[in-house]
Amino acid sequence: GGVGKTTLAYVMFENFRHQFQNHCFLRNVKEEHQKHGSDLEKQFFQRLSKEENIYLEGLGSIKDRLYHKKLLIVLDDVD
What we know:
Blueprint: H1 5-16, E1 22-26, H2 29-36, H3 38-49, H4 59-66, E2 71-75
Parallel strand pairs: 1-2
Helix pairs in contact: 2-3
């Protein structure tokens, strides 16, 4: 840690996100997953699909909606 990897990743994300139909930058994934578990997964899919009310049981329909889109996904702090 400590060399600015997150900052660099975020700057790159900001520079390139306009080239994608949907984009998502999630920080502290490891810590957030330990604290919130599936809520992090829900947050991820909400950001990608740009929908507030999303049900993970409908993961197949989410996949269908995102399948043909150009996505930029950055997950920070993942083991």
